[in-house]
Design goal:
The chain is mainly beta and 195 residues long. The chain has helices at 2-26, 46-49, and strands at 30-44, 54-71, 74-84, 89-91, 97-115, 118-136, 146-164, 167-176, 183-194. The chain has an eight-stranded antiparallel beta barrel. The longest helix has 25 residues, at 2-26.
């Protein structure tokens, strides 16, 4: 009889834990808003700017909103937002400097795995971007003092999230497949509030 009771108590505890875990996970579905700040890197080849290759970093930030569907072990979501890549600038030589101002709007789908309050996820979608390239110290006869470009291209990334109730802490790496660039990417850390 004692062995029977010894088996029931752990079984009841495990069942209660699974019920509580399941109800806590179900509460994670819903709308959220948030913001992130991090480092953006823009690399532009010389054949685009007619000056030496450009590879510089700056502080960037994002504002986003989305909806998350929690499906037990899996998360699915859709998210849109505004991204400011900052204004990376650098000296190309002793007399010439280059600055790029870039921002964009994005729309992505997310999919990931739940590990209790900790999630990992991948994201993919599109970014509609605008960029202004300014070259300082250029001879006016050179013919290129500034250049503006825009377009819509693919983006993708990986992230991790830790939930503290309705407050979520997020870390992300995102890559933007922007036309005429060698590489544009961003590492960021931010917070989101789930409703």
């Amino acid at each position: 009889m004692a062995s029977y009771r010894n088996a029931i108590i752990p079984t009841l505890c495990l069942t209660a834990a699974l019920v509580l875990f399941g109800s806590a996970q179900a509460a994670d579905s819903g709308f959220y808003v948030g913001g992130s700040i991090g480092q953006s890197t823009l690399k532009v080849p010389s054949d685009v700017t007619d000056v030496p290759d450009f590879s510089e970093d700056d502080t960037g930030y994002k504002l986003f909103a989305g909806y998350n569907w929690n499906l037990a072990l899996f998360n699915l979501g859709v998210e849109g937002g505004y991204i400011d890549f900052g204004s990376p600038s650098g000296a190309l030589d002793a007399d010439t400097s280059l600055k790029i101002d870039a921002d964009g709007l994005n729309l992505v789908g997310l999919g990931g795995l739940n590990f209790g309050p900790f999630d990992i996820y991948a994201k993919a979608g599109w970014v509609s971007w605008d960029a202004s390239l300014s070259i300082g110290g250029v001879d006016p006869g050179f013919g290129l003092g500034s250049l503006s470009e825009d377009g819509t291209d693919l983006m993708y990334g990986l992230g991790a999230r830790f939930a503290l109730g309705k407050l979520h802490i997020r870390g992300e790496w995102e890559e933007f497949d922007i036309e005429d660039s060698d590489r544009v990417y961003m590492f960021s850390l931010g917070v989101a509030w789930q409703f």
